[in-house]
């Protein structure tokens, strides 16, 4: 066999490796990276419009979820051994310790994940949506800043979501796993 034709083996980082890199000071708390399928991925810089929508989401979701679910902003969710993304918003099942002890939030804890997308729109739809669907995340929203629309992905089947539905500022959305929680998209999209 010709050695020149053999591609070098890829070393995938595990979640454990990722955390050890942070503990060793290789990754800093303010490093804008996330672990996706064993690769460290640089996250897009956050622009002012992105910040404003995350702030709107935070206010609307904290009010809607009060006493029912935990609103986690730009914190990690452990998907599997090789992926620990940092969605802009994760709505998590309530837990008395607010995930301070034991395992980090994982797919079984997630009611909804939300990404706010400007420059990351294609990545969120082609990489993160399939990742979340394979993990069985019941619902995923992409807030498209350019089109001022929320693409809603629901019902993962065989590692894929059905076609997303589009929702606009005049609408209200209920969470599929917590239908009593309703969000007015006008509060988010402005």
Task: Please give a structural write-up.
The chain is of the alpha+beta class and 190 residues long. The protein is built from four helices and ten strands; from the N terminus they run αββαβββαβββββα. The protein has helices at 15-23, 48-65, 121-134, 185-189; strands spanning 33-36, 39-42, 69-73, 89-93, 110-117, 139-144, 149-154, 165-167, 172-174, 182-184. It has a six-stranded mixed sheet with strand order 3-4-5-6-7-8, sandwiched between helices. Strands 1-2 form a two-stranded antiparallel ribbon. Strands 9-10 form a two-stranded antiparallel ribbon. A hairpin with a 7-residue loop joins strand 9 (172-174) and strand 10.
Offer a few descriptive terms.
alpha+beta, 190 residues, tt1808, chain A, six-stranded mixed β-sheet
What is the element string, with H for helices and E for strands? HEEHEEEHEEEEEH
- Under CATH, the topology is which? tt1808, chain A
Architecture in CATH? Alpha-Beta Complex
* Mean pLDDT reading: 93
User: What oligomeric state is this?
Assistant: single chain
Pairing-aware structural class of the strands and helices? Answer: alpha+beta
Strand content: 15-25%
Arrangement of strands in the largest sheet: 3-4-5-6-7-8
| Strands, total number | 10
């Amino acid at each position: 066999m010709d050695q020149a034709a053999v591609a070098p083996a890829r070393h995938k980082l595990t979640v454990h490796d990722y955390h050890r890199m942070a503990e060793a000071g290789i990754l800093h708390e303010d490093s804008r990276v996330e672990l996706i399928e064993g690769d460290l991925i640089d996250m897009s810089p956050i622009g002012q419009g992105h910040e404003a929508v995350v702030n709107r989401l935070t206010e609307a979701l904290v009010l809607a979820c009060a006493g029912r679910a935990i609103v986690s902003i730009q914190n990690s969710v452990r998907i599997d051994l090789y992926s620990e993304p940092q969605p802009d918003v994760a709505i998590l099942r309530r837990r008395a310790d607010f995930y301070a002890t034991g395992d980090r939030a994982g797919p079984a804890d997630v009611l909804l994940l939300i990404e706010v997308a400007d420059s990351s729109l294609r990545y969120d739809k082609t990489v993160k949506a399939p990742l979340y669907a394979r993990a069985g995340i019941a619902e995923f929203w992409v807030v498209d800043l350019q089109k001022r629309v929320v693409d809603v992905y629901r019902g993962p089947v065989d590692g894929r979501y059905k076609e997303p539905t589009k929702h606009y500022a005049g609408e209200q959305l209920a969470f599929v796993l917590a239908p009593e929680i309703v969000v007015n998209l006008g509060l988010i999209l402005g």
